[in-house]
Amino acid sequence: MHNQIHTIKKEKVLTGDRATGQLHLGHFVGSLQQRVALQNDYEQTILVADLQGLTDNGHNPHKVSSNILNVVADYLAVGIDPQKTTICLQSAIPALSELTMYYSNLVSVARLQRNPTVKNEIAGKSFGNSIPTGFLTYPISQAADITAFRATLIPVGDDQLPMIEQTNEIVRKLNHVAQDNILVECRPLLSKVPRLPSTDGKSKMSKSMGNCILLSSGAKDISKAVKSMYTDPNHLAVEDPGKVEGNVVFTYLDAFHPDLAYVNDLKIRYQKGGLGDGTTKKILEECLQETLMPIRERREKFISDKAQLIEILRIGSEKSQDESNQVLGSVKRAFGLNLFQ
Amino acid sequence: MHNQIHTIKKEKVLTGDRATGQLHLGHFVGSLQQRVALQNDYEQTILVADLQGLTDNGHNPHKVSSNILNVVADYLAVGIDPQKTTICLQSAIPALSELTMYYSNLVSVARLQRNPTVKNEIAGKSFGNSIPTGFLTYPISQAADITAFRATLIPVGDDQLPMIEQTNEIVRKLNHVAQDNILVECRPLLSKVPRLPSTDGKSKMSKSMGNCILLSSGAKDISKAVKSMYTDPNHLAVEDPGKVEGNVVFTYLDAFHPDLAYVNDLKIRYQKGGLGDGTTKKILEECLQETLMPIRERREKFISDKAQLIEILRIGSEKSQDESNQVLGSVKRAFGLNLFQ
């Protein structure tokens, strides 16, 4: 009885990932660890965003379809527990598409074109004059996702704040149409962890660029990735003083090494001169190997049982269908389209 | 057995109306009469397009919700038979929204902005800088409607040809992604009947402009509408020769009077001089009263039994759900998103 009451009062958190690739250390540091913690105190839903993945892969859908179960295996491997967290598949929840249709009547094209996140993303892609409609409009689809689960707390990076703003604008407009507070506004949960750089210290992490370490990366790949990591290009001899800022090895040590004092000590020695990159890389590699080995082993077990992964997604998606159909029902009533209800 | 085979081979026709108002004589002449004929030789679906109606009424949804049953009553009143024609409600068919999401990844924003029909419609509305996203993207939603029912014959006015083109582009792109002909292209069935002018001979027919005769218009309203009809402004005295071109009374006589030879004779007399507008209007009024009385009476009966109208829509929508879910299944398979199938 007590548990029941507690469950009802838990705040709802929604996160998700575009299913366009395996998850890597950037995801681990930036969001996965937080989700593992959140699932104990919040009612958490994680959306495998295959539809959103298609918005810039419409002509290459295999990139999405082949990664859905990879992403689920990644979740389970890091400790996301399907007993505590609902893991669901966007394309399996029709209400998300239906809500998108309703909301798209409340958002102008100009408003979408002003969205800073989408603007930046479009600039970073090679769409030319062919921006897919689904890509320009995906903030509406995200608003559908957030509101469909009545999520009020959305863990995001600060580059995603315009998405929260757009969602809340839609919520207010819909509530105005409904003359009732049928949807709830959400707020961001900003990550305190800085974004993890790619191993080359420059570009965005991407498997094809070979500048990231996947949760599934083998021991050899991890070793190779650490050895090629960007450090301080002016730190030529061991005796030379080295720079810690922008040195990817130290950024990763900050993110992954359990002993902060020890890392601090290493930094002082490196800055003075006398500590070689070979040594710092060896320390980092050991630490990453230790972090990733159990994750990789669990992941291998999960990915080898695809039927189980599908079943987890199916159960989560069915639960999500029920939740989102209720919200869709309210929205349809708001528009007076409840003839059959 | 013979009937069964015949049914399977029937070609599929899709038409529909935005549920934003009662249907009027323009609809009757332009499409309703044709649909009554088509239902005997084709497998016909009529979509009550409430979602499309919302694309420019998102903040005024009552205009849509209050007209859904009006439109269904109009259909039944003119002789569309729900035993022969499937009448369904767009918002009750989730696959239409889901297909729209998939297709929107295959159409660029620039392509939508070039659509001549939408461009003209936007120019005719007072959106200013706030074109609703749903309005710009509605050709994608129409493509979803057409393909969801595997419709191959689409009765349209020539202003709607760009919609057919857009649909077939999507069909080809989807089939290319699928590497299989899962969707079928459609072709237009162009109306041979010229567009009926409004009673003032100028603007588009609209209830608020008071320049159209509704299928539900009462005898007095019909009489008033005919009396105020635009004729030949230079035909001042009965003896003067009158112009038939652009004379709305004669256009309506062409459209509604059963005796073509008689109307032809009237035209000759009018052009010569000696036939007054009072007389031609009296002839037209008699003919319209005769046409509309039985329609109005049937309509009154239908609209008084809302439960029956809802039931007709419900049955048609359920049938349409089954059909469209099959197409959605194929499209999801084409994108590799058939984990649970």
UniProtKB/TrEMBL annotation, chains A, B:
GO molecular function list: ligase activity
Entries under SUPFAM superfamilies matching the protein: Nucleotidylyl transferase
Pfam families assigned: tRNA-synt_1b (PF00579)
CDD domains: TrpRS_core
Domain of life: Bacteria
EC numbers, comma separated: 6.1.1.2
Keyword set, alphabetical order: Aminoacyl-tRNA synthetase, ATP-binding, Ligase, Nucleotide-binding, Protein biosynthesis
Family: Belongs to the class-I aminoacyl-tRNA synthetase family.
PANTHER family registered for this protein in UniProt: TRYPTOPHAN--TRNA LIGASE, MITOCHONDRIAL
Name listed for the protein in its UniProt record: Tryptophan--tRNA ligase
The organism of origin for this protein: Colwellia asteriadis
